[in-house]
Amino acid sequence: MDFIRNHLQGYGMSDTMVTYLSNIIMVLFIAAVSVIANLITKKIVLNVIAKIVRKDRHKWGAIVLEKNVLHKLSHLVPAIIIYFSAWSFPTYQILIERLAAVYMIVVTIMAVNALLNAFDEIYRSFEVSKIRPIKGYIQVMKIVLFIIGGILCVAGLIGQNPLIILSGLGALSAVLMLVFKDSILGLVAGVQLSSNDMVRVGDWIEMPNYNADGDVIDITLNTVKVMNFDKTITMIPSYALISDSFRNWRSMQMSGGRRIKRSIQIDTSSIGFCTEDMIAEFRKIHYLSDYLASRTNEIEEYNREHGINRRESPVNGRQLTNVGVFREYVTQYLRHHPGINQNMTLMVRQLAPGDNGLPLEIYAFSGDTAWAVYETVQADIFDHIFAVAPMFGLRVFQNPTGHDIVGMQDKRSGSRSNSIEAEIG
C-alpha cells in the first residue's frame, strides 16, 4: 500500500485522490491474487491429487472427490489471502477479517458436510451397512455441525467469545427440545433398532397401522422408507417401529423356505371305505404302491388276529378310507415335489370339519422364498390336488352356484315333461 501511494504521489495527485486510487488498486490486486491462487489450487493441485487418488485400488478417494470435498476446501485459499490482507485497509480491517473468518467457517462446514456424505457412501459399500446403518448418526452429526457452525459465525460477526453465546442457549433448551423432538426420538429409536438388529435396509416388513408392506429402502434419523409391493412409498417414523408392533420377514427369507398353509375342503358325503376295486386301482399309482402293500398286510393281519369278519359288515375291523389314502398320496406327492423344501416341516393334516366340509390342510415350505416362485409352486400343487381328488372318489366342497341351480331346474322340467308324456301315452 505504501509503495502504491508513493508512486501515485509522484504524479502530483492530491492526498484524497491518492487514497481513493490506492484503495482501488489494492482491492484489484488482492482480487487478482485470490483468483489466480484459486485457479492454481483447482486446476493444478486438485488435478494432481485426483490423478494420485484414481491410481489407488480403493475407491474411497474417488468417492471423496465425487462429493467435491477438496473442491469446497479450495475456497479457503482466497479467503485466507483476503484475511491476511485486511491490514492494508486499517479503517475496515476488523470488518474484513470478521467477514473472511465467517466465510472460512462456512466453507469448512460445507466441506465437512460433504466429507460426512462421502463417509456414508463409503460405509454403504460394505455389507455391514445393511445390518448397522449409520445414516441416522450422520444426520445427528450434521445437526451438531451446523449448530456449532452457526454459533461460530454469529460469534465471529459480533466479535464475542462463542462460549458466551453457548451459555445463553441454556434458556432456549426447552424451545430446542420442542423443535428437535422428532430428531431426538428418531435418534433414540435408531440406536435401539441398530443395537437390537430389529430392521435393516432390504428387509421385508409389514406394518398394517401405516399401510406398509414391502422392502425397507432407506433408514434415516426421523423416518424409515418402505417401498410397498404396489411400488408406492410409505414413510414410517423411526420411533413408531419401537412403540408399535411390526412384522419382519427377514428370518423367513434367510431360512430358505416359505410356508405354504392352505386347505382344500372335502365334501364329507363323499368320504367312505375303500373297496377292493378301489384298492386295486390305487395300487397302480406309483406313490401309493408301497404304502398300500404294507398297509393292507398290516390291516389283514390285525383283523385275522382278532377274528374279525369284514364280510358280515364293512364297519367291523380296520379298513382303508378314500380320504386317508388321498391324504397319504398328497404327502408322498409333496415328498417328491422339486419345489418343496424337504428339510423343513411337511405334513397333510385334517382340521375340524365345519359347514364347508372337511378341511384337508397342506402345511409345507417352498424351496425358494421369491414371491413369484413361491406362488407358482403353491398353485401347481393345488392344481394337481383339485384334479386328482375325484380319482379317489372325493368331491371338493363348493357352495351352489347359478350353474347348479339352472341344472336342477332343467332336471325338474325334464322329469315333469316325461311324466306328462307318460300320462298322455
TrEMBL record:
Superkingdom to which the source organism belongs: Bacteria
Chief place of localization: membrane
Domain (Mechanosensitive ion channel MscS C-terminal): residue spans on this chain: 327-387
Keywords: Membrane, Transmembrane, Transmembrane helix
Transmembrane annotation, as ranges: 20-41, 101-119, 140-158, 164-180
Protein name: Membrane protein
Membrane as UniProt keyword: yes
Entries under InterPro entries matching the protein: LSM_dom_sf, MS_channel_C, MscS_beta-dom_sf, MscS_channel_2nd, YbdG
Domain Mechanosensitive ion channel MscS intervals: 182-250
Subcellular location: Endomembrane system
Membrane topology: Multi-pass membrane protein
Pfam families per the UniProt record, alphabetical: MS_channel_2nd, MS_channel_3rd
Similarity comment text for this entry: Belongs to the MscS (TC 1.A.23) family.
The keyword Ubl conjugation is assigned to this record: no
